[in-house]
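Hi all, long-time lurker, first post. I run a small reading group and we've been trying to get comfortable going from sequence to structure in the token notation. Rather than ask abstract questions, I figured I'd post a concrete chain and ask someone more experienced to write out its structure so we can walk through it together at our next meeting. Sequence below, copied exactly:
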Amino acid sequence: MIKFTTQELEMENNLKQRIEFICEFCHVTPKIINGNIKRINDTNLNYIEPHKIVINNVTFLAFNYSTDIYVGSLNKKIKLVELEDYIKTMS
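-- Answer (accepted) --
Happy to help. Here is the structure in token form:
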């Protein structure tokens, strides 16, 4: 039987501050959910679940130390500096 270990991954402070600042500027409130590291026991396999940021019912995914943010899934990405414009077009 395969067993997993899950450990919560804290969002990098700099990334969190940038997202909160952008959202404050756009007059929206983000809901930030920390990601996880999922390990398959007795192997060297790990899965990093991204942080989730929910803004106006749209889920964005982010990884620590990355300048990209993903919209909805890992298929569509934008630069973090483009997040403000993206939020404004959603409203």
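A couple of things your group might point at:
The chain has two helices and eight strands.
Residues 4-90 form one domain.
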